Structures are given as structure tokens and as C-alpha cells.
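Hi there,

I know you've been waiting on this one. I reran it after we fixed the sequence typo, so this is the corrected version. Both the input and the resulting structure follow.
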Amino acid sequence: MKRPIHISLGPNYENDDVLLALKTLFNPLKWQDTSETEKLEREFEEMFPGYQALAVNSGRSAEYLILKTLGVGKRDEVIYQTFTCVAVPNSASWLGAKPVGVDMGSDYNIDEKDLQKKLTKKTKAIIQQNTFGIPANIKKLRVPIIDDQAHSLGIGKTGEIAFFSFGRDKIISSVFGGMIIVSDSELFVKLKALRDKLKNPPLLWTLQQLLHPIAMFVILPTYSVGLGKLILFALQKINLLSRAVYPEEKKGGQPNVFPSKMPVALAALARHQLKKLERFNLHRKKIAKYYFENLKFHFENLNEDAIVLPPNIKEAVYLRFPLRVKNARGLLKFAKNKGVILGDWYNEIDADVVNLPTYPNLTLKDAQTVVSVIKQWLRTKAN
């Protein structure tokens, strides 16, 4: 059966990723081979000359360790843009600091004018997010700027300290995983000391992540007919699959698995996907180019701002292709009824944004279907 157009649920996984997850699952001895994690760190250092790298079990763990190393604690403030995942402000809250939200600009990144208003003597750090793989570029300030590259591995730009995520629908995926890179050797020594004191996640947690690509191999082809949804629900219910965001995180809570070291088994998955990085990002840019060329339209009786495209930036990798639309929820529902699952990152913050898929398994024919559905929806609004 054909895989549905679905923006999440492990969009990066190819047959060889599933096979590797299976082999790793049934080879527990490989779980003890710490050289996999060390090799992943060395590969990042080769990608970013002048930086040293440290692997952890998620992007939020990476952010937490960075903030802790910078001395962030009670009565401190950490600036972040509100258009983001709940995991970003949580990392500051877990240290007792106050996350201070800043508006986003027209490029979906932090708005510098609002940022200047929010800076105070208590500001200890700023999280600069490259939303959807669109490069951000805050001017240097008196406080450390932490480059959040959870969406943007491969754009080639980074600050003095950055972190990456290998979540299930990020640029590369090991289901969970994260990396810190830092150019300051003194700061690296402090970070490494903290990271080395962390424990490995429970074996059950690692098992859950290894099962994810394998389960998606069965779930996605049967998702449209309902069977895949039932399998997904059942596996999550019996705790064989984990969720991308834990329920307690939505309330600011800290699951005990964050922060932890990166499991060797997941480092192997990340290393395998890292080999595909250039191909994946070229594909995303190709799909984004198609959207740019085919969504430049408006209909009679519709305002020209019925759809607002993102900035067209050469360096952007477009992890997802964001659109500003009037009645985003209406478009999401309409597309779902047509069998196309679009994205709602971060719809709870800004109700006018819809994300289009660019993932590696999305074909050009699939992208044509996405555009066709959007045009159909706009025609219904025009009538």
C-alpha cells in the first residue's frame, strides 16, 4: 500500500533505516559500544571545524545542559521566541529561571524589535531559533546567544554555541537525540563534565525509540484505512512507543529521562541518517522551490494575502514549508478530508500558520497533490 501524505510520524525513515533499527534491536551487544556515540561527535566536529561536540538524548537535554553551564538559575531570565515547541521554555523553567517570550517576525524567527524591549539586567541567555530551517541572525548582544538548530542542520551558519535535535520529524532522525557544539574550549570542558555525570536513559526508553521506525513501516501504509491509527494507539497505550512530547511537559513538568546521555543504539541510527543529510536537504529545497513556483496565485474575490509564502532564502533548508493563511484550521480539516495530513507547528501559538511537508519520502507528485488541495480549498472560499 502507498504511504499517505503525512507530515509527521517519522517522515525520514527509509527501508535501510528500518533494517538498521531491526538489526540494532536484536544485537544488544552493540548497545554497549560507546564508540558509536563518540564517532557521531567526531562527525559533527568535522562538519563544524573549530567546534567540539557532545551528544545527549534530545535537543531539550542539550539546551538544559547549555543553560546550566552558563549558570542560569533562579531569578534569571532566558529569552526565547513564543512561536516554538513547549520544550524550549521548559528547559529554562527546569533550572528555576523565567522564560521570557518574544514575538516572531515575518521570517518566523525572533523579532529583534520586541527582543530589545524584553532585554533586562536579569537576561542570562537568548535562544535563537532557525524556524523551519530558515536562518535567523540576531546581532551580537551583551548576553550569550544560543543557536537553536533543531530545525536547521545543514544551513552552514552557527554561533559560538549551538544545539541540534534528532527528533522523529527533524532534519535527520534517531527518534530522540541531540548534539551540542561549542567553539569555546573552556565552556566545552564544563559542559563535558556535566554531560559525563548524566546517566543513560532506561533500557525500556531506548527500546521504545528503536521500535518507532519499525512500527512506522507498518503503520504508515495502513494509516489511511484506519488500521495504522489503531496500531499506533495500541502501541502507545501499552507503552511500546513513546510520544514526541510527554504529557507532563505540556504543563511545564520535567520527565526523568531528560537530561540523559545519548544511547549508543540511537547514535547508530543518527550516524546512518547523517550520511543522507545532503540528499535530504537538497530534496527539501527542491520541494520548497515547487511550492514557491506553484503557490504564487490568488483568486477573484480573495485578497492577495489569502496565502502568504515564507521568505525565499537560498540557505534555508525548509524542514517544513510554512504558509500564513486565513482560517488555518479550516485548511487543515479540508486537507485531512482529502487524505493529506498537513502540519500545525505551532498552531496553538499562532492560529494562522499551516506547514506543508518537504520530507525525504515526499515525491514531486505528492507535492502536486498538496498544491492541488490548497487550490481546491481556496476555490471553495472564493465561491
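Quick highlight: The longest helix spans residues 364-382.

Best,
R. S.
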